[in-house]
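Archive entry. Fields below.
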Amino acid sequence: MKVLVAVKRVVDYNVKVRVKADGSDVDIANVKMSMNPFDEIAVEEAVRLKEAGKATEIVAVSMGVKQCEETLRTALAMGADRAILVETDAELQPLAVAKLLKEVVAKEQPQLVIVGKQAIDDDSNQTGQMLSALLGWAQGTFASKVDLADASVDVTREVDGGLETVKLKLPAVVTTDLRLNEPRYVKLPNIMAAKKKPLDKTTPADLGVDVTPRLKTLKVAEPAKRSAGVKVASAAELVAKLKNEAKVL
Amino acid sequence: MLEPRQIQQLHSLLETQRVATDVATLQSHGLDWTRYYTPAPAAVVFPKTTEEVAALVRWATQEKVALVPSGGRTGLSGGAVATQGEVVVSFDRMNAILDFNPVDRTVRCQAGVVTAQLQDFAADQGLYYPVDFASSGSSQIGGNIATNAGGIKVVRYGMTREWVAGLKVVTGTGEVLELNQGLAKNNTGYDFRHLFIGSEGTLGFIVEATMQLTRPPAPLSVMVLAVPALAGIMEVFNAFRQRLDLTAFEFFSEKALRHVLARGQVQRPFEGESDYYVLLEFECVNSTTEETALSLFEECMEAGWLVDGVLSQSEEQARALWRLREDISESITPYRPYKNDIAVRVSAVPPFVEALDAVLAREYPDFEVVWFGHIGDGNLHINVLKPDALALDGFREACERVNAEVFALVRRFGGSMSAEHGVGLLKRDYLDVTRSPEDIALMRGVKAVFDPLGIMNPGKLLA
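PREDICTED_STRUCTURE:
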């Protein structure tokens, strides 16, 4: 069974992002970029499926600037077999990404697509769901457990109030949650071997997809600074403040 | 013990609530991280200003009371331990950052500022304070300076000494001295600043420091490598530092790793065990840096020095890999480790390590010995763990017996018996391993000048 995973290049989770002076976006010049952590979990899950003999081939896909190649090389070093970069300098919004993925799926014909539930830069949480709708495939979102059979997949989902297990008919789209697995470290010999694995390039135009953004960012602003705490002299004063100032009682 | 009269005098120098005599505070602030001593201070005081510290010292000179400085209490040589009725001067309340100068790139702060607080402050200004170690979340700048703390970036940035641009100190007579005023160049005779760095509170107390900051490094990548034999470690070091700007080069043993993994917070870096591991960190200046690192790895593999390795793919992974090394000290603390912190010249590391390994195998056949350290600085941390069956006193005696052998070896190789942990109480009686009798006599002379009454951290460093 062929599995397709999508990986996004994002600002590293530990980087303290700064807003550009003109408020148009966050500043990513000279900032450490890494694979979206949820996508890392997606790649890890695919690799485990292959190690368990359930998947036969893993194709990693990324979209965006040339440097996304580095993200794909990481996926290859983790265990993906080959990679596809849809190269463009244009801003890509979730709908455009889903449409591009749909075209890649049409070419590759995977039985399972695994993507992160959201990317930590724009936090949209839309691509997986949009892709499933565009393809007309079943979707299992926020997966904390994936159990793959020949013609179906059982996905345990993290929902409010507990866990829900759904059975999806293949082909299907699965989006990963944090507790699905713990991604492995990338071994140096595998990084070197990954350099020899195939990485094909295409463009939105080749795939016949119009990626023009539908949404416009009006303004990007820093979160409000937390004001300093105050010391209260008594429990009564605390209660009064919670009632009158914080208005939480 | 202090007389009620003396407690009252302390109350008049400080607000009442900043003079503690309750058992909990005496226990907590009478100790550092060295677990061999029973705390027994007479009181713990929490000054807020230089004037209050100076007043405390003048009071101590009049009353002939010994003072012990206390910072983050993360010391490993008993330098901040009060065992005989001393008054502990805690710098916990002197934790203000006073001034920042973006042109000089210096920060003036009180002695009780926590290392991580200074690091974060520097980062907020787009700058970097490079001295770092596992205890940076607790240790204080004053203590770092008084012990000339080293840590994990020494191979690139040097010890705390390199970053002290100025000091304000209170001497053993209660005089306040301004040392070097943040100057880059100041050739005006004896530089007392450097005398106070590493003096362990025996000459006076550091109350303020002007710390130098620097440009932050490019994104850092971390490798953890499997090294089957001790002898391969320095070969790997030599190969990598020829072509990369290393910011850290650390090593640890499989035994050390197992203690970290046993806590269940981090995962093994790769399948398969190796007797030793190296963690190295380098600045990823541009895309060719990683290529260079990979080809170095390949060369070292071919030479047989390495058998496996991983490279961090994100900051998160880099941090997780660092925990394999940084959590060692904490994970073995329950075993009451006897810590040896020794150093030799980098070139002498391979023969020294071989000889030391033989001594330890012969002398500690029944004890678990955990090796790790900043091997790129020639610095080894040898931790002997206490077997459950052995009482603490008996264990310590056994360790001190073997010390004679270990230190004879250190002396033979011209090394240091305390590379970065300082001397304190724990290593005081071994000072002559590294310092000559003439040296030690002059040290006593210096102490007598700054602390004529011998009230500043007495019994530490010098008997």
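CURATOR_NOTE: Chain B has a mean pLDDT of 93.
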